[in-house]
Amino acid sequence: MGKRIAIIQGHPDGARGHLCHALAQTYASGAKTAGHDVREIAVSTLDFPVLRSKAEFETGALPQSLVASQAAIGQADHLLIVYPLWLGTMPALLKAFMEQVFRPGFAFQLGEPGRLWKRPLKGKSARIIVTMGMPVFFYRWYFGAHGLKSLERSILGFAGIGPIRESLFGTIEQASEAKRQAWLATLRRLGADAA
Q1: pLDDT at 116
Q2: Taking 80 as the threshold, does the pLDDT of residue 112 lie above it?
Q3: How, if at all, do strands 125-131 and 164-169 pair?
């Protein structure tokens, strides 16, 4: 039986000619061919405000434009999050989306004082795909992959999502066509495996 997969396309440019789009589309194609149910969320097409206070985050209403996205994430067995590396982390639009969607009551529930929080999204798995201009080893070694680790630990892991796997693609501007085709073949296989 197939899995329910939510693909979060985090590239802030709605023009679909970027490597992030090709990777996500290929993953989706592989997943659909293998019988998985795929829901695609293109963050660049959504109109929503940026959260500006603790009160908005904790008790404000989820914008109507994000209700379907939150439902798709809540129903999914597996999440695929795709974004380009901007200033060492995810683009601001994707972070704003995460802040809106991963709210208290959905992504976590605070327990009684002195007790741990509850994790309603526990049991879901995730894969994060990041494209970047620099070599991947340099991002990991020099920058410590802090932006990626923040997403893994402070958002997904905090909500109970795991295991979390990652696929990083570096020096993308210099990549040969053969290299790009190899990346796409990998994503097709991962989609088929819902991994």
Answers
A1: 66
A2: no
A3: parallel
Q: What residue ranges define each of the domains in the chain, with the CATH number in brackets?
A: 4-193 (3.40.50.360)
What pLDDT, on the 0 to 100 scale, is given for residue 111? 66
pTM over 0.70: yes
Beta carbons of 33 and 66 less than 8 angstroms apart: no
Q: Report how far apart, in Å, the C-alpha atoms of 142 and of each of 5, 88, 138 are.
A: 33, 11, 5
Within 8 A by CB and 6+ apart from 71, the residues are: none
**DSSP E strands, the chain:** 4-9, 37-42, 78-84, 125-131, 164-169
How are the residues of the chain apportioned to helix, strand and coil, as percentages rounded to the nearest 5? 45, 20, 35
Q: What is the pLDDT of residues 50-73, one digit of tens each?
A: 999 999 998 999 999 999 999 999
The DSSP bridge partners found for residue 131 are: 84, 169
Q: Is the peptide bond before 84 cis (omega within 30 degrees of 0)?
A: no
Per-residue pLDDT at 90 exceeds 90: yes
Collapse the DSSP code of 190 into the 3-class scheme (helix H, G, I; strand E, B; otherwise coil) and give the result. helix
How far is it, in rounded angstroms, from Cα 97 to Cα 44? 10
Looking at residue 13, what is its pLDDT?
94
- For residue 77, give Cα distances in angstroms to 27, 82, 98, 165: 15, 17, 18, 14
Whether 190 contacts 167, CB under 8 Å: yes
